[in-house]
Design goal:
Elements (H helix, E strand, L loop, with lengths): L4 E8 L7 H17 L4 E3 L17 H17 L6 E10 L2 E10 L2 E7 L25 E3 L5 E3 L4 E5 L4 E7 L9 H7 L4 E6 L7 H15 L3 E6 L15 E5 L2 E5 L8 E8 H10 L1 H5 L13 E4 L26 H25 L4 E6 L3 H17 L6 E5 L7 H14 L2 E4 L3 H10 L9 H22 L1 E5 L3 H6 L12 E2 L6 H14 L4 H8 L20 H5 L2 H13 L4 H11 L6 H17 L1 H4 L28 H8 L3
Parallel strand pairs: 1-2, 2-3, 8-15, 9-10, 10-11, 16-17, 16-19, 17-18, 19-20
Antiparallel strand pairs: 1-14, 3-4, 4-5, 6-7, 8-9, 11-12, 12-13
Length: about 650
């Protein structure tokens, strides 16, 4: 286990009933393959040694003896493997027979976990052969060769040094109202393996997948599932060899069904992230409050050492999305965008109604954020039955305004049917700068911020005059890195974009271009316009001189950093590790490290702005409102975080 990740493998061998020696040979081969892949943990199907379709032969001494000898062979064959293996077999203990998971490492059995729930309905007959775990009185079991090892459903397997705890359940255990993994997770398990023999029926794979995903989500854990596959008897049922790896509700890897030769499915579980998610989610540990048998002390912990996992970003066996706020699928992105637009419009509609506002006022610049705010305002007015001309769109050209953005502002307002107004600010800014003693031709921060504050003042005063409400345009990414003028575009009467990061703004505007009649052409041109506050005079050819991403770095990087730093509480070195994987071939490590340092410095320095932001709707799992999601002192220092980044190997 390296960099906080545990590498896991769901292994599906070709298994033939009652051919234990041959089955073990195939299990050992896949175990070696998993170990070569760097797996910390590998799980095999239920009853993989004797075969899950051996039926009444489980009660024959010949098969049980053969299974015992085969287990010894498997231990010998895997003596050199550091991977923790979970292999299913039939095991006799206390004069009873159990469907069991044998956990082994380096050729030694660490413990045996019996199956808790035995299905005895429809095509299943397990109570005919096996005893459930709760009928087991003994805490140890004697294995072939005389060694006694821990036995019971109260076992967890722990690498204390690396902070990994593994639990095991078997097939039907997953399908009951309160699976054993619930108690294992509450007792500290970060990872649960499921040794399964789930036969295939129409629609069952999708349902099985939903169970695995919901289990991993409700228990905030990694879940590794391996089911019986090729070679098993098809007398009455067929097995597909379904293998899955899930983490906190996300499917990381999945095998094809019905692979003729079986195989392994490998992925990396982010154990560090699971730990932090549990720390954030207080309800997770409160679930222990009404029971006494799910505490840490109620489980026996068996030590092992996890030594695999990814060493470098290139080694990481899972995808890292470079655009975590925007789905990769166009259809899914459009669907999510429409949902977010509905949240924004509903929030603003409620505020307009509660404020008894007759109009909505938006300062439009011809850029992405104000275009989104204007469109959302139009949708909000539609919801409460106000006409579109109750939407006042004000463009306030200043020294840096270009013809393209000015024209797009007017075109979008016309397409939406707004009340469009032009209020130039150049003269007012000139008077103001002279009044405060600003030298002519000095285009510094004072020169820039004076324009933003003048526009805010005008928009608010127009809203007051019209009995309306000034709608803010700033987005979540600008709040994160403080690229907003305090008391200028930082302020409004309701901020509809405050929960929307810049990369997602683009997705929303693309959807609006498709959905809003007559707006497609102008919105697509706005999408093609460089991001800029336009506070400096344009170039000689009239094009935009001030490009935001040339100043602070690409917004796609800042949004990536924001997501992982705020949502998951990642350390800067871990954010860098993930970014190297996500942006491999696009941004060199040095550039990622540089922009991440910019993000950290600006994020900490800008909290004083976020401490007094206007109301606005939260639309996703990352938000920065001081009233809801981020409690942060305005004078906190980034030094420890910058040092962590600087020390990253």
């Amino acid at each position: 286990m390296r960099n906080g990740f545990a590498r896991v493998a769901a292994c599906v061998p070709v298994t033939r009933p009652c051919q234990c020696e041959e089955n073990v040979r195939r299990i050992a081969a896949l175990a070696a393959e998993a170990a070569d892949a760097g797996a910390d943990v590998a799980v095999f199907p239920e009853l993989a040694i004797p075969g899950c379709t051996a039926a009444d032969f489980y009660l024959h001494s010949a098969l049980l003896q053969q299974a015992s000898r085969a287990l010894v062979r498997l231990l010998e064959a895997t003596r050199g493997l550091t991977t923790l293996l979970a292999v299913g077999t039939a095991l006799e203990a206390e004069g009873r027979l159990y469907n069991a998971a044998v956990l082994m490492q380096r050729g030694a059995v660490l413990g045996v976990v019996p199956k808790t729930y035995l299905p005895g309905y429809a095509e299943f007959y397990e109570p005919r052969w096996f005893e459930p775990a709760f009928r087991a009185a003994a805490k140890t079991v004697r294995l072939p060769g005389g060694k006694e090892v821990p036995f019971g459903s109260d076992l967890l397997f722990e690498d204390a040094e690396r902070g990994l705890v593994v639990g095991a359940e078997i097939c039907e255990d997953l399908w009951v109202p309160i699976p054993p993994s619930s108690y294992q997770a509450l007792a500290g398990a970060h990872l649960v393996v499921n040794l399964s023999a789930s036969n295939e029926l129409v629609g069952k794979a999708a349902y099985r997948r939903s169970l695995v995903l919901s289990r991993s989500a409700s228990c905030i854990l990694g879940y590794v599932y391996a089911s019986a596959g090729p070679g098993e008897s098809t007398t009455d049922v067929v097995f597909s060899g379904h293998a899955m790896v899930a983490e906190n509700g996300v499917l990381l890897a999945e095998s094809p069904l019905f692979r003729p030769e079986g195989g392994i499915t490998v992925s990396d579980i982010d154990v560090d992230r699971l730990r932090r998610e549990r720390l954030r989610n207080r309800s997770f540990f409160d679930a222990n409050g009404w029971r006494t048998d799910t505490s840490e002390g109620s489980f026996r912990r068996v030590p092992f050492a996890a030594e695999g996992g990814p060493a470098t970003p290139a080694d990481l066996r899972r995808a890292v999305d470079p655009s975590p706020f925007v789905p990769a699928s166009e259809s899914e992105a459009a669907s999510r965008s429409r949902e977010i637009l509905a949240i924004q419009a509903a929030g603003l509609a409620q505020r307009l109604s509660a404020a008894h506002a007759r109009k909505a006022v938006v300062a439009v610049s011809g850029g992405l954020d104000s275009a989104l705010a204007l469109c959302v305002s139009a949708l909000a007015l539609d919801r409460i039955g106000l006409p579109r001309d109750a939407l006042v769109a004000i463009t306030m050209p200043g020294p840096g305004t270009t013809g393209r953005t000015r024209g797009n502002s007017e075109a979008l307002a016309a397409a939406l049917g707004c009340d469009f107004r032009v209020i130039p600010i150049a003269d007012a800014i000139g008077v103001h700068l002279r009044d405060i003693g600003q030298p002519d031709g000095v285009h510094d921060t004072t020169y820039e911020n004076a324009q933003a504050r003048e526009r805010c003042q005008i928009a608010m005063d127009v809203a007051n005059r019209e009995g309306g409400l000034m709608v803010g345009t700033g987005d979540l990414s600008e709040l994160a890195i403080g690229f907003t003028t305090y008391g200028g575009d930082h302020m409004s009467m309701y901020s509809v974009n405050c929960g929307v990061p810049k990369t997602l703004v683009r997705s929303l505007v693309r959807t609006l271009a498709d959905d809003l009649p007559g707006c497609g052409t102008v919105l697509r041109d706005i999408l093609a316009t460089p991001v800029s506050p336009e506070l400096l005079p344009p170039e000689e050819d009239g094009t935009i001189a001030q490009r935001t991403e040339e100043i602070v770095g690409p917004y796609e990087l800042h949004d990536f950093f924001l997501y992982h730093f705020v949502r998951f509480g990642e350390t800067p070195r871990r954010v860098l590790f993930l970014a190297e994987k996500a942006f491999a071939g696009r941004f060199p490590r040095a550039e990622l490290k540089r922009v991440l340092a910019v993000f950290l410095k600006r994020f900490f320095a800008s909290q004083f702005k976020r401490s007094c932001i206007p109301d606005g709707p939260k639309v996703g799992s990352v938000a920065l409102s001081p009233r809801g999601d981020l409690r942060m002192p305005s004078d906190a220092s980034p030094e420890a975080f910058l040092k962590d980044l600087e020390d990253a190997p």
